[in-house]
Design a protein that fits this description.
44% of the residues lie in helices and 9% in strands. By secondary structure, it is mainly alpha-helical. It has a single domain (11-228), classed as TIM Barrel, CATH 3.20.20. α3 (40-49) links the parallel β1 (36-37) and β2. The structure holds zinc ion (ZN). Zinc ion binds next to β3.
Length: 254
């Protein structure tokens, strides 16, 4: 899972960004090691219908829709003949449908269409990127349906894959994503995607600015993945507790 690709990303996206050089090196490694990138839609289809996958399949995904995905990542993907999946928050993209809240320079729709024309699958990542487990049913429905409708209108084809903002979901969220028409959805975890996780909770691992090429290799080879993200899991758990406590405090004040 990638976010921004750039030389000087905004502070808010810096930690989760990669430099164009690091991205190129990582793609080179995938090619050298005989990996075959597939789209999220293809993985979903294969696991649903039992269709075969190519040898050493891997998903390359970009969340949010940062402009550097078109500027820096696309030429590298094209050079290798690699496909990827871009998960866009439709209200963050520049131009039509734009709302406040984007963290950095985002793609515009012409750039999204150029990525799609080059074989990148475009999936949904909500309209305004809220924490979906924290919003009510009405907003949850709006965030998933509006996003799907805008992508379908701009690209002429409805998206089939979704990625949860901040990487987590509840049963209620997963049910709504499914009801909105998405066939599979990606989370973030400390393991690689496995069929038994189910189509609406497939895990991905994070590639960050500090991810060196050895760590990247270990991750794609599936070695010591849990250890690499052990700290992250603690953070996620800690955060859930903080939010729960805040909610309890709010209830007490009422
Ligand atoms: Zn996101």
């Amino acid at each position: 899972m990638y976010h921004a690709v750039g030389h000087r990303p905004a502070t808010a996206t810096h930690r989760l960004s990669v430099s164009p050089e690091a991205f190129a090196e990582q793609m080179e490694l995938l090619g050298d090691r005989g990996f075959t990138p597939v789209t999220t839609a293809r993985l979903g289809r294969a696991w649903r219908r039992g269709e075969p996958l190519p040898p050493r399949p891997v998903l390359i995904t970009f969340d949010d829709g940062y402009e550097g995905v078109h500027r820096h990542a696309l030429p590298v993907l094209v050079e290798h003949g690699f496909v990827a999946t871009l998960f866009v928050s439709t209200g963050w993209l520049r131009g039509a449908h734009e709302e406040d809240g984007a963290l950095d320079t985002m793609l515009d729709w012409d750039q999204v269409r150029a990525l799609a024309a080059a074989g990148t699958e475009v999936g949904g990542h909500t309209h305004t990127h809220p924490q979906l487990d924290q919003v009510d049913d009405r907003r949850l429905r709006f965030e998933t349906l509006r996003c799907r409708e805008i992508i379908a209108g701009e690209l002429g084809e409805a998206p089939v894959s979704f990625a949860y903002p901040y990487g987590y979901s509840t049963r209620r969220v997963r049910q709504m994503v499914r009801a909105a028409g998405f066939a599979q959805s990606l989370a973030v975890g400390n393991s690689l995607a496995r069929r038994h996780q189910g189509p609406y909770a497939l895990e991905r691992v994070t590639v960050r600015r500090t991810t060196g090429i050895e760590e990247f290799e270990r991750l794609v080879e599936g070695r010591a993945v849990a250890r690499t993200f052990a700290g992250d899991r603690a953070l996620t758990k800690g955060y859930a507790v903080v939010r729960k406590t805040r909610r309890a405090a709010r209830l007490l004040r009422m």
